[in-house]
Specification:
Catalyzes the synthesis of beta-nicotinate D-ribonucleotide from nicotinate and 5-phospho-D-ribose 1-phosphate at the expense of ATP. The chain is an alpha/beta fold. The protein folds into two domains: 165 residues, nicotinate phosphoribosyltransferase; 199 residues, nicotinate phosphoribosyltransferase (Alpha-Beta Barrel), CATH 3.20.140. Helices cover 44% and strands 15% of the residues. Strands 6-5-4-10-9-8-7 form a seven-stranded parallel β-sheet. Helix 9 links the parallel strand 5 and strand 6. The relative contact order is 0.15.
């Protein structure tokens, strides 16, 4: 079976889950799966996927895994005790077919469904790899991994180039993910500062890295005050939950323009920095620098995290642009964990409803907009003054 531990997921799922337990324990949500890669039919994977889900739902956290989570200062004892009893439930998942494609819908209490996304995507990615490339030789992947290590080592100040593995959800296989992160940790430990994957962080002694995802800010469309204030509401709730920990704010749920409008002096002082996940990273970095300066914040006391479709050369170019003006780090995903010589599929699971109300993500890249209701999408664009791209 592909998933062997509930820790085989991203740490921000646990940080958001704790906030849900304490702040929104009654919230009901819906997530939907989508394969963005044209011409890929995943329906033949359905029976294997169902078996993998049944196994996933049999897993519980072991005492040593709970001990690791409890060692993270921002996770509270009542949440650890909740996790001691927790397991995922297949009754919240509906698998079928729609419009000639695999359909996967998750509906249920947010608290009991939030951990499905990452392992399900990892399962689908690995099942597809098994079927599409049954005899694939990983020697090409190892050659490319060595090339990445050499690219880091060739930088003029390699120990200052800091990145983390963000590649769980679209990895080639679990075994390959393990090999990649183990190799990077051994070869360039000064640069690889952590991983989003909690299981790998535990077994390799790395820092689990992550704070929040778009779904947390999206859900606040249904849980907060009037729509135009819901991004500020999400940041307030997060700060109330973590009180200075996990202080990287996600910047592109409603576009950078809307983020800068809401991320005022109060939030500039309250949060350690921001994360870029769509749009032009160079334009975003310059805009954040100007925003901090305009709010009388020394940029060298803040952090910018870049995580959108990165490669080592692209991240290095961003780092060289900003490294002497602000603290810069990177989360690199698919290019680390699925760069084996075959093309990965672009798959996502996104929140589409909360408490029976549609929720959307606008993004700074048109292809990343998430919406199942065009009328509501237009209303959100109006509320955040984010017109549709021409």
């Amino acid at each position: 079976m592909i998933i062997q531990s509930l820790l085989d997921t991203d740490i921000y799922k646990f940080s958001m889950m704790q906030a849900v337990l304490h702040q929104f324990p009654g919230a009901e949500v819906e997530y939907r799966f989508r394969c963005r890669t044209e011409g890929v039919d995943l329906r033949p994977l359905k029976s294997e996927l169902e078996r993998e889900i049944a196994h996933l739902c049999s897993l519980k956290l072991a005492p040593e895994e709970l001990n690791f989570l409890s060692s993270l200062r921002y996770l509270k004892s009542d949440f650890i005790e909740f996790l001691r009893l927790f397991h995922l439930q297949a009754r919240f998942i509906d698998i079928g077919e729609q419009d000639g494609q695999l359909s996967l819908v998750i509906r249920g209490p947010w608290l009991h469904t939030i951990l499905f996304e990452v392992p399900l995507l990892a399962i689908i990615s690995e099942l597809y790899a098994r079927h599409a490339h049954p005899d694939h030789d990983l020697d090409e992947g190892r050659r490319r991994l060595s090339e990445k290590i050499e690219q880091v080592q060739a930088l003029d100040r390699p120990d200052e180039f800091i990145f983390a593995d963000f590649g769980t959800r679209r990895r080639y296989t679990r075994a390959w993910h393990d090999e990649v992160v183990t190799t990077l940790a051994g070869e360039i430990p000064a640069s690889l500062r952590g991983t989003s994957n909690v299981h790998l962080a535990r077994i390799l002694g790395l820092v689990p890295i992550g704070t929040m995802a778009h779904e947390f800010i999206q859900a606040c469309q249904a849980l907060g005050p009037r729509l135009a204030e819901t991004q500020r509401f999400a940041f307030e709730v997060w700060a109330r939950e973590y009180r200075g920990d996990l202080g990287i704010a996600l910047s592109d749920t409603y576009s950078l323009k809307a983020f800068l409008r809401d991320f005022d002096l109060y939030f500039c002082k309250l949060f350690d920095g921001a994360r870029q996940d769509s749009g032009d990273p160079f334009a975003w970095g310059e805009a954040m620098l100007e925003h901090y300066r305009a709010n009388r914040i020394d940029p060298k006391t803040r952090n910018l995290v870049f995580s959108d479709s990165l490669t080592i050369p692209k991240a290095a170019a961003i780092w060289q642009r900003f490294r002497d003006r602000i603290n810069v780090t990177f989360g690199i995903g698919t290019n680390l964990t699925h760069d084996t010589g075959v093309e990965p599929i672009n798959i996502v699971i996104k929140m589409t409803e909360c408490n029976g109300q549609p929720v959307v993500k606008l993004s700074d890249s048109p292809g990343k907009v998430v919406s199942t209701n065009q009328q509501y999408l237009a209303w959100v664009r109006q509320a955040f003054d984010t017109p549709e791209p021409e």
